[in-house]
Write a structure and sequence with these properties.
5-stranded antiparallel β-sheet; single chain; alpha+beta; about 170 residues; Thiol Ester Dehydrase, Chain A; globular; 3 helices
């Protein structure tokens, strides 16, 4: 790790984004397309990756996207995103997605989805570049990092198993 890259905390790059959904985003059932929710989560995660890395970063993988409840037309959708783990050039960004009807602030906020994106920081030529290490602030950050390391180990093991199977063909 380069000495010029000072560690950054999850708080440094954490963000919240909000939008109101519209009919143009809906499927035939009147729910917002899952792809629209993924796009919003990816955009939110991208901002966090850019902020943490201090420059351009691109989506390398969507490790997991769990849809817990439907998002409806007219819902206010909020994403809460932060860096969970940082490696040499890649970062895992966790995104929590919540909704609330636009016209009723007394309605309970619903957790409707969670996602884990892997971003790679890139330089002007598109090559991977180093990212600052992650400096954990509390037990919640430590838990998030442990879980991110488990997801990373599973990604790498899956890739190794697939590569081994292909080499036998």
């Amino acid at each position: 790790m380069s000495a010029s890259l000072a560690a950054r905390t999850p708080t440094y790059s954490r963000i919240e984004l909000a939008t109101v959904t519209s009919r143009a985003q809906a499927n035939l059932l009147g729910n917002i397309h899952g792809g629209e929710v993924v796009k919003l989560a990816d955009s939110s995660a991208g901002v966090v990756a850019q902020r943490h890395s201090g420059g351009p970063a691109v989506t390398a993988a969507l490790d997991e996207m769990a849809f817990l409840r439907p998002v409806r037309v007219g819902d206010i959708v909020r994403t809460y995103s932060q860096v969970n783990w940082a490696g040499r050039s890649s970062m895992e960004i966790g995104v929590r997605i919540e909704t609330q009807p636009w016209d009723d602030p007394t309605t309970e906020v619903l957790h409707v989805g969670s996602a884990y994106f892997v971003f790679v920081a890139i330089d002007a030529a598109g090559a991977a570049r180093e990212v600052p290490p992650l400096r954990l602030e509390n037990a919640e950050d430590e838990r998030r990092m442990r879980e991110a390391e488990i997801r990373r180990a599973h990604r790498l093991a899956r890739k190794a198993e697939i590569d081994a199977a292909r080499s036998r063909d």
